[in-house]
Design a protein that fits this description.
Elements: E1 2-5, H1 11-17, H2 26-42, H3 44-55, H4 68-72, H5 78-98, E2 103-106, E3 112-119, E4 122-126, H6 135-148, E5 152-156, H7 167-175, E6 180-182, H8 186-195, E7 205-207, H9 212-221, E8 226-227, E9 235-240, H10 246-257, E10 264-269, H11 272-286, H12 292-301, E11 303-307, H13 311-321, E12 325-329, H14 333-336, E13 345-348, H15 354-359, E14 385-392, H16 395-412, H17 415-422
Parallel strand pairs: 1-11, 4-5, 4-7, 5-6, 7-8, 9-10, 9-12, 10-11, 12-13
Antiparallel strand pairs: 2-3, 3-14
The structure holds nicotinamide-adenine-dinucleotide (NAD) and zinc ion (ZN).
Length: 426
């Protein structure tokens, strides 16, 4: 844990480094470029080889997908079915609220102009599976595709060394409307979905979170496909004044740390007394948790606790850091909430655990990380819609448009443009 106060000598330089840009390291970039090139050249053969190398599983080109029989055989507990249904209910309702609807207007010359929204035909959804079967992520991505009416949803997730995928995850994928399941993970899966192989039909758009290799693959393949955002290793930044409950704050920090050793957690407060209490609570609660291995890694390398001068400084640091999740706990919520601009999602007050947003609340938990929140927003339903603008004129509106069109045509030296308009009213 890096604990620093504004009086410390290295405070300013540390805070400056929190103003980050979402850029990959050289080694990850090079490795992912090689993986993409291999998949582009070797197709399914490369998928089989990487599955062996990174996931220790023997597959062949005929075994890359979950079969319909496997899917039909999936059995889960009634409590799982109930939880999946409850989460999906909120997700679909929230997603429907975020869908765009067709609209049109009459412009100044009398032409009808509008926008039309249709679901993408085929999307790919990556569901991480390296460290935990992220059942909730299946719902928080594919559920939005389903709500938007996407007919073909292919999911990719790594299988275990036995070639199997967790049954709860399969159940959730099915419930969320996924139509094919590729048992491949990592950058190689992203490359297969974007470029296609003999057995994998390429997609129009790619969605979903993953580790740094997955995120970097999406970044490099942008152009071949469009992507949703760059959702990488989980993060939380908690901003609290003295009204924060130290046990709750510690619990939320630990919850995001258990996602994996590459998670980042931060706590910023203007109350020095609260820092001591939170650190004690973290140490105490850690003893009772199962995933202490990952959490200890995060506490060692990915944790910072800052004692700032005041709330304004806390908010400024938060905007520079652009955390995936920001938890804001303070007496004057109305004042500070509008000033937090770069967070993927904001959790308000002592009683809003980030975990409820992770699993159940409704907004997608697929959120920008690594500083990308500065320029990306979290996953939304309308990202599964293709937008097309539509223009319709009649003789009257052509006549009214002609003068301006001809002037642009003259300036740009494009006389055929002017002619194509004039010809309609001659
Ligand atoms: N931002 C969000 O919205 C969000 C949501 C859910 C999960 N997440 C994050 O997703 C991540 C999931 O990571 P994960 O690792 O558990 O699963 P993952 O499925 O993203 O990655 C596992 C795959 O990575 C590949 N891989 C592993 N080691 C490799 C190496 N050395 N070189 C190249 N490829 C390698 C393997 O092929 C493996 O299948 C976590 O960091 C979690 O925090 C983020
Ligand atoms: Zn989480």
């Amino acid at each position: 844990m890096k604990i620093l106060g504004y009086r410390d000598a290295d405070y300013e330089s540390f805070v400056k480094r929190l103003n980050r840009r979402a850029l990959p390291t050289h080694d990850v970039r090079d490795l992912v470029a090689d993986i993409i090139a291999e998949v582009a050249g070797q197709g399914d053969k490369a998928l089989v080889a990487y599955a062996k190398r990174f996931d220790n599983v023997e597959l062949n080109a005929k075994k890359l997908f979950i079969t319909p029989e496997e899917l039909a055989d999936v059995k889960v507990a009634p409590s799982t079915k109930k939880a999946v249904a409850a989460s999906l209910k909120n997700i679909i309702a929230f997603a429907k609220g975020g869908l765009r609807k067709d609209w049109s207007m009459i412009n100044a010359e009398g032409a009808r102009v509008g926008e039309r929204f249709q679901p993408f035909d085929r999307v790919g959804v990556y569901v991480p599976g390296g460290k935990a079967p992220l059942v909730s992520t299946a719902l928080m991505t594919a559920g939005f595709a389903k709500a938007a009416g996407v007919p073909e949803i292919i999911a990719a997730t790594p299988c275990g060394p036995d070639g199997k995928v967790n049954p709860e995850l399969l159940y959730a994928l099915k419930a969320a409307g996924v139509t094919e399941i590729l048992k491949i993970g990592g950058a190689q899966a992203i490359a297969a979905l974007a470029l296609g192989t003999k057995t994998v039909k390429p997609v129009d758009r790619l969605f979903g979170p993953g580790n740094r290799f997955v995120v970097e693959a999406k970044r490099q393949l942008f152009g071949a496909v469009s992507i949703d955002l760059l959702p990488g290793p989980s993060e939380v930044l908690i901003i609290s004044d003295k009204t924060g409950n130290p046990d709750y704050i510690a619990a939320d920090l630990l919850a995001q740390a258990e996602h994996g050793g590459d998670s980042v957690i931060g706590f910023i407060t203007d109350s020095k007394a609260l820092i001591g209490k939170v650190v004690k609570a973290v140490e105490k609660q850690l003893l009772t948790l199962n995933r202490a291995k990952y959490i200890k890694e995060v506490l060692k390398q990915g944790t910072f606790i800052l004692n700032v001068r005041n709330m304004a400084e806390a908010v400024e640091i938060s905007n520079a850091f652009a955390s995936e999740h920001v938890s804001l706990i303070c007496a004057d919520e109305k004042k500070w909430l509008p000033q937090i601009r770069t967070a993927g999602a904001i959790y308000l007050g002592n009683n809003s655990p980030v975990a409820v947003g992770d699993f159940l609340a409704g907004p997608s938990h697929t959120l920008p990380t690594g500083g990308s929140g500065r320029s990306f927003s979290g996953l939304r339903a309308d990202q599964f819609q293709r937008r097309t603008s539509i223009v319709k004129l009649d003789k009257k509106s052509v006549r009214k448009s002609l003068e301006v069109v001809q002037e642009f045509a003259r300036i740009e030296g494009l006389d055929a443009h002017g002619r194509s308009t004039a010809i309609r009213v001659e």
